[in-house]
Amino acid sequence: MDYPKAPRVKRRSLWFLAITLLTLSGAAWLWLRPYEWHPDPAAPAEIETASLRRDESYFWLDLRLDTRDLRAVPEPLFVETPSGAEIKPAQIDYQGPGPISGTEDGTLPQIDAIFLKFWLEESSLQGPLALRIGNGRLRVRTRSGIPSVKNGNTRIYHSSRW
């Protein structure tokens, strides 16, 4: 009994499949890698993303932090600049259930994420930046030089290497 022969896959299809797999694996790597490979274990949160928006000669730095069973915003909380200046956040928001009514100590059931907004001068971005949060220190930025962001534009970073 003769069986029908299986159709031959064309080389073009194999190349297309290989390129597609490489592209998807590269996109997965960019999407799934951590912001910082070895964050400080003493820090009660980890940076997930950072975004930088230029506003004339100043910058807005937005940080999204994923927390680990946090019930209050940790103190101290500030960005350390290359010159040693400590910049406190201009705005703090959190994601998670709201406050429990009737609690006097101001604790929350749980904070899932913290959103911080910092107002930075151009000179503050001349070198690396670090975030002091509680007893820990997280790297916000490891490179030097002012990032190339045009006025009014925003850049989002998924790694501290910017």
Give keywords:
162 residues; mainly beta; Immunoglobulin-like; five-stranded antiparallel sheet; four-stranded antiparallel sheet; 1 helix; 9 strands
Brief rundown of the structure:
The chain has 162 residues and is mainly beta. The chain has a domain of 113 residues: Immunoglobulin-like (Sandwich), CATH 2.60.40.
Question: What does this protein look like?
Answer:
- The structure is a single chain.
- It contains 1 helix and 9 strands, in the order αβββββββββ.
- The model has no long low-confidence stretch (mean pLDDT 87).
- 17% of the residues are buried.
- The strands form 2 sheets. The chain has a 5-stranded antiparallel sheet with strand order 5-6-2-1-9, with no helix packed on it.
- It is elongated, with a radius of gyration of 22 Å.
- The protein is mainly beta and 162 residues long.
- β3 (77-80) and β4 (86-87) form a beta hairpin.
- It has a domain at 45-157: Immunoglobulin-like, CATH 2.60.40.
- The termini are far apart.
- The longest helix has 22 residues, at 11-32.
What oligomeric arrangement do these chains adopt? Answer: single chain
Largest sheet: 5 strands, antiparallel
- Strand pairing plus helix content: what structural class? mainly beta
Q: Please give the radius of gyration in angstroms.
A: 22 Å
Average pLDDT figure: 87
Give the beta-strand count. Answer: 9
Order of helices and strands: HEEEEEEEEE
CATH top level assignment of the domain at 45-157? Mainly Beta
Distance between the termini: 66 Å
- Unreliable stretches, pLDDT < 50, 5 or more residues? none
CATH architecture of the domain at 45-157: Sandwich
Helix content percent band: 10-25%
